[in-house]
Structure formats: structure tokens, C-alpha cells
User: Which sequence fits this backbone?
């Protein structure tokens, strides 16, 4: 993680950055493992129109 937070950043700002970074890393790991869903599967799961 780079030092790109402003000098007046709060702990909440830092925690949010950590959360986002972890979420992205987990998503990339899932993708590498093939743990993904197709567009059609998501539409069906949430019953979205075509």
C-alpha cells in the first residue's frame, strides 16, 4: 500500500482502504481458482430481466 492518504486522514479512512484492498485481493484469488459466476447465473440469482 502506498503512502497516498492525506495528512488529515482518520483511522476510519485507513480501515476503509484496508477493507477495499482485502476485498479486491480476495476477488482476484477467487478468480484465479475459477470461483466465478457467469453473467447469466447472476441475472438468474437476482431475477434480473434479460
Assistant:
Amino acid at each position: 500500500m502506498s503512502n497516498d492518504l492525506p495528512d488529515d486522514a482518520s483511522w476510519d479512512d485507513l480501515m476503509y482502504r484496508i477493507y477495499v484492498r482485502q476485498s479486491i485481493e480476495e476477488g482476484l484469488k477467487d478468480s484465479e481458482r475459477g470461483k466465478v459466476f457467469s453473467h447469466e447465473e447472476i441475472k438468474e440469482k437476482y431475477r434480473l430481466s434479460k
